[in-house]
Task: structure prediction
Amino acid sequence: MRGQVSKRTIFAFIGPAVFGLAIVGIAPLLYAGWTSLHFFNLIKLRQVKFIGLDNYWTVLTDEVFWQAMGRTFFLLCTALPLQLAFGLGIALVLHKPGLTILKTLARLSLVLPMATTYAVVGLLGQVMFNQKFGVVNQLLGGANINWIGDPTNAFVMIIFWDVWQWTPFVALVLLAGLTMVPGEVEEAARLETKSAWKVLRYVQLPFLLPGLVAVLILRTADTLKLFDMVFTLTRGGPGAATEFISLMIQRVGFRGFDQGLASAQAIILLIITIILAQIYIRVFYKEV
Amino acid sequence: MNTIRKLFGTAATASILATGALADGHGWSLSDAAAPYAGTTVDVVFLLRPGYDAIEAMLPAFEEETGITVNIIKHPYENALGEQVRDFVSDGDLDVALIDLVWMGNFAENEWVLPLADVQAKFPDAVDPDLDIDDFFPLVLNAFGGWNDTIYGLPVDNYSGLMFYNRCMLEEAGFDGPPATWAELKDVYGPALTGDGQYAFALQSKRNETQSADSFARMIWPFGGSFLDENFRSNLNSPESQAGLQFRQDLMQYMPDGIVAYDHAEVVNGFAQGDIAIITEWSAFYSGVVSPETSTVADCVEIAPEPMGPAGRKPALGGFSMAVASQADEAEQAAAYLFIQWATSKANAVEYVERGGVSARQSAYQDPTLAETFKYIPALVESWQDGVPEFRPRFAEWPEITEIVQEWGTKMMLGEVTTEEGAQEIGTRMEAVLETAGYYSGDKPLAQ
Result:
């Protein structure tokens, strides 16, 4: 039939992508699923055996797993609102007319924290927050704050770095949302009211919601898999103060070598992430 | 004792093999032995530590004489086990395994490394008649190279915990020598040396192997404690173990704040900058604290054996051995053996020490001039007489157990749990690991 694309052509275009995705994404996931149903310890490979859902039961009843999960969500609940607040503030400032060159420079500089490798951020943190010679204590008037060795301070430090690194991302996404607001609509609104809040709430916010949902989903997923920065900065310590869920999974899988248990933890984490993403989409998209 | 006797039986067998090679091989030379393997590349993991820099600096001579290329893959200590495990389970490229004394159970039980005697039997022409395996410190050979009465690896980069002290700070405070006991360190030296941003002592306690080996284990043994009793049940709630752990808590008042974030580097740097008067550290860090380039107190550094506790000295024991990988092909195995034999040889031991390494060869330390140059040698030799091979239990389950100790040991230090609660938690979890491994059902012998 004229205009109809043949199946061969469709396969030729989509096939490589599906094949690539299957190799790099689906196959490891299936393998993790298989591993999670076995006793599978890298240093006891002769003892590999099918154990059904034992690993899942172990994870679900493991107090340490839920403590790490709680810690991770606490980080999300503290860092994300800060990122949204600062990001929105920056976006609104950059959205104002005038000062074009400065705004361009600001937009460019916003990319720098995001472009910094996570592990490098952690190493920077080790130096900057060093109790004795770190620049942070110097800036605080020569304070003698023990950042890395104190559980509460270490957590605050992680929040600081996460906010520093990802606020620019939020700002850029929201700035993109603001540029979607039709100029004449925004102008008319400003003529109607002097309240910036009302303009934001009733005119700009509807255009920001898709970006906000994307930010929520991406930042939630990023926080749940936050690893490199924390590993190089505190290695989950002191004690377990900064042992987030990804660090715990890495510890079980690659330091304790229990790949079966770590796979079960990872799959449970994946399920939680998917559920959260679905909730975000249903709740916020309904608003839109 | 029986184990040690059997181990020396194996050592003697290896010596006989070596002697046999001598009988058959008058005029043995490294270049002749290596001739069939010229052009072979040996892949080996090294750590980012002075002892490995020393071998690397000496390596051109070996490569030139043998035609064997040694490909060094460097890792920080914390990554070394994981990287090697992944290589061995995937039948990778490593030809030499670098084995910490607590990893030997994994490598031997998984047959990732070959027994030394098997390698020597397989390649008799490669065996140096001067190998002289009895020249290694017996404790070190047993702890680092042996598993279940069989020698697998030859010791390299071996440490004993030593007490590094700043003589100038001690003299200024009115002391003419270091503390002899842990109690003296806490009760006498602690108050006198702490204040004005300076601390009497620092015990590296970061949440990694440092917490379990350098901090936790270091405190239980001198007080008569141990991880396990003779039935492989937790001994951490015994009065002796508790005394050691409580002592650590009490001693923290004379350590820098945030000591749970201090790894080797922080402690050694604090000592080298004159902020800390006394540290207990591995002999491997000696070269850094006596070098004027890295230490402001180089002229004040003195070394002594670790303080004694009620149960004696019981110093920390750490270090490595190198063994031939079973996954290597024949030529690589032979070349790997030649490299290990050369790197740990009696002939190279003095140069190795001079370049910053710590040799396990007894003969190296008989040279009095070497002991004058390297102040740690007398203390090291003394410590190796008193060391505990099971300072950290040497079985395949240690990687799981050390994670438990690291978590709860740190929580104890932070005051989040008491020493009793922490010990109880470690004990319960440790026994669960041992139960799963089959120690209590009789599936596995109670090693050590």
